[in-house]
Amino acid sequence: MRRATITQYLIEQQRKHGNVPPELRLLIEVIARAVKRIGHSVTQGALADMLGSAGTENVQGEAQKKLDVVANEVLVEANLWGGQLAAMVSEELERPFIIPSEYPRGKYLLLMDPLDGSSNIDVNVSIGTIFSVLPCPEGREPDEQAFLQPGRNQVAAGFAVYGPSTMLVLTVGHGTAAFTLDRDLGTFFLTREPIEVPADTAEFAINVSNMRNWEPPVKRYIDECLAGKTGPREKDFNMRWVASMVADVYRILSRGGIFMYPRDAKHKEGRLRLMYEANPMALIVEQCGGAATNGRTRILDVQPTALHQRIGVVLGSKNEVERVTAYHR
Ligand code: AFP
């Protein structure tokens, strides 16, 4: 069976929906090439001296792994010449990186978590890259304010999983598709489309070590899952927690589930970043028929106030997300 490439998929999306102009397709192709390079470094691991700490901290005061730094450099460098961006925001950079005047500048803004799941790098567990694309407001410098748009403005979002296979999950606003990298050819081929998240599930993902800090609605929901058949849910639940959002979300796209990193007494704003973790994942999950809230409000409707702001995240199977959100009311 002849499988479509990312380029063919995007041209087909443009033909069907008119929402993928060549500039956006070229941007996504640049990102896919950068993801291939990052995936190569991830696979090399210790052989390329890619494990362990970089000995530096990012602007969030978090210790950087070598791969955090490399992934950020690969994405920034690839997009310098890409010609489709006005500026980039990265978890690894405090300020927006505005494309210098000597390079071609485009009409999109890229936001990214170059390497998600850093705590899993040294233990050989799946990690990934998350990206979000916003339109750059006309006729203005692409400063911090230009980026502070609600997630519903995204024109594209995606993530890579560097796992047993390297996958790229992508939406341009009309459904979600998954591509698998053929390492021998160096090409991503379409392997799942459309992707639909079942509305119900019996599998939850949360870091239970935070239990004592949870707000009552979260505690109630998880207690009911743990009570299983003996409790009000009248069915048993399974639990998974990879601690790489990309891996947990990809599992949910594959078989349903609910992912929760709610705000709590320790993470008062939440732990995950709105602009380049929650927003892209929320768009992807909604495009698969799932839901994504911060426990109270649809994530894609949240008006950002700061580039690196954090937010609580409850996403996945629609009926479960709605139950958790109802408990918060
Ligand atoms: P790192 O990139 O710092 O490892 O954080 C990964 C992450 O942002 C997200 O991918 C995970 O779901 C979550 O944090 C894991 O958080 P815990 O380590 O507190 O479980």
Assembly type of the shown chains? Answer: single chain
Shape verdict: globular
Helix percent reads 25-40%
Task: Give the C-level CATH assignment of the largest domain.
Answer: Alpha Beta
The CATH homologous superfamily of the largest domain corresponds to Fructose-1,6-Bisphosphatase, subunit A, domain 1
Instruction: Average the pLDDT over all residues and give the rounded result.
Output: 96
The secondary structure category is alpha+beta
* Count of structural domains: 2
- Cα gyration radius (Å): 19 Å
Secondary-structure arrangement, i.e. CATH architecture of the largest domain: 2-Layer Sandwich
**Ligands present:** 1,6-di-O-phosphono-alpha-D-fructofuranose
- Give the DSSP E fraction (strand runs of 2 or more residues): 15-25%
State the separation between the terminal residues, measured CA to CA: 49 Å
**Major beta sheet summary:** 8 strands, mixed
Which strands sit side by side, in order, in the main sheet? 4-3-5-6-7-8-9-10
- Given as residue ranges, the uncertain stretches (5+ residues, pLDDT < 50) are none
Tally of strands:
17
Helix-strand topology string: HHEEHEEEEHEEEEEHEHEEHEEEH
